[in-house]
Amino acid sequence: MTEKLHEFVETLKIANPEWVGDVKDALGEVTVTVPREHIFAACEFLRDSLGFDLLADLCGCDRGPEEEPRFEVNYHLFSTTHHKRLRLKVLLSEDDPNVESVVPIWKTADWHERETFDLVGVIFENHPDLRRILLPSDFDGHALRKDYPLRGYEPMTSAVETIAADFDAIDEPV
Known about the structure:
alpha/beta, single chain, two-stranded parallel sheet, five-stranded mixed beta sheet
């Protein structure tokens, strides 16, 4: 079932062996890990030479602060000519969560990259308009990071007032 996809991966390797890091075949899907410095060229080749003309989805994932690399960006490609799906994955460290934007290749990447930036904090270099898309512009942090507090960040004065109110409640006579 995935033989054709492995042929595409081999063609990708022949075009440039540095574009293909790791290849996983699971549950009828093939995932290719691409080094971040080659994602734009690999995507362009897949669109122009192998017919993956649709970026069906792009999403980011925080693997957790204890993981290295911490972040991953998944590109779900689809070909409307041969009806095959292929996933590309880029791994990014917490210190440098930057990857080249693929908006010049697929316009649909625009909002997907903005969503990934907004919620996970991945920075897409050369994106035409990288700003928040779901959360308010003054939102502090990235809500889908695994170290983001469930109740959000509280201002220090609010936390001090809460602690003071707790002490006042203890001192009140019954």
